[in-house]
Task: structure prediction
Amino acid sequence: MSEEIERYVIKGGNPLVGEVEIGGAKNAALAIVAASIMTDETVSIENMPDVRDTNVMLEAMQSIGVNVDRIDRHTVRINGSMVKNVNIDTESIRKIRASYYLMGALLGKYKRAEVPLPGGCDIGSRPIDQHVKGFRALGANVDIKGGIVKASAEKLVGAHIYMDVVTVGATINVMMAASMAEGKTIIENAAKEPHVVDVANFLNSMGANIKGAGTDVIRISGVSRLRKCTYSVIPDQIEAGTFMYAAAVTKGDVLIKNVIPKHLESISAKLLEIGCQIQEFDDSVRVAATKRLRPTQIKTLPYPGYPTDMQPQAGVALALSDGVSTITESIFENRFRYVDELVSMGANIRVEGNTAFIEGVESFTGAHIKAPDLRAGAALVIAGLAASGSTVIDDIYYIQRGYEDFDSKLRKLGAHIEVERVNGKVSREDFKVIS
Ligand code: EPZ
Result:
């Protein structure tokens, strides 16, 4: 079916120069809005990113009776006292993978949840066995049938849970449910990502008792009731990192504001290694590059290692570097789908298994390409900004899932990037999810 679709048209070659303001972290916000239904009181959340994924999540929550009051573009008030039922199966819930956070939140509060699993997925198989294992350890019966996860318990009781893999989603989900279980829960081999800490801080502001978030052992003493709070979401580490690479790849000079430099350390270290200048301030970081970038080796790892969500952006930088690099993707098996697009712009990259072998080229040339997923899409925009000539990027709704005002923020830095509306065929499958 033909409909009006949006695409980016980029004229490359301009170094990005100036200042950019980073918004709230999408992946923290998704979990925080889900967790806010765990109290009957009204929770106020500030620094909410206005991106498609968080908006779909809020819509999904409204569809089960949650009251969502938008105060302004970045502030939302949520009241979950009117949740109609815990059997959720609406179209909007299925659109977004992060809806699995409603499982932990509903199970914690109502001791029952029925949430459909989203369908296919773009970056890898993404099982939920560790979420299920955690809920079962807390005493819940969990069944997955016909794509629906049903969890219920007479009561949840704290437990000692060892995660078999380091997983952000399962750590957060189990942490939410355990916050309202009876007694103590210990999560070992927990994920340490900044958004795990942010969700723990949020739950603690609501009256939960969580200690150790940010280390690999999280201790939770369950409470029977959570209460209202006002909370501000942390800055988005991945949005910030994306602009850092945009500065580096275009040989620009950008001050990236409203960030927590500590969260960016693995990214800053790599950029330094490949020849960028980095200056850290209290809540901003400046990235400048004047010369051709140097090659390096990267392996994606859980935090504080190099993030998988910053892998495609690094791929673009290294594809223009002066030598041979490798990138090993150890978190998701399907995160090199930007490579074919980049090769059509002149890159020299070969992927074998989970490793990309990259031989740097001097320049890219503009091409008509498409965004295969959120971060890969953002990386290809950076490639277009560095390329000679024009680049057209289709399927930009992926990028809009996680970057607020991406094109206008880039334009303010001097980029030539426009959104063009054309009649075309939408290639997405509606339920494909990437978050
Ligand atoms: C979160 O996904 C993020 N999404 C992803 O952001 C991010 O790439 C990822 O964490 C890693 O940092 C949200 O926060 C909404 P995981 P999540 O559970 O929670 C395996 C973006 O671009 N695993 O940490 O789904 C899994 O297969 C994105 O914003 C199990 O084996 O990731 C993977 O190999 C996309 N069993 C590894 O753990 C499980 O039960 C890490 O996954 C769960 C996960």
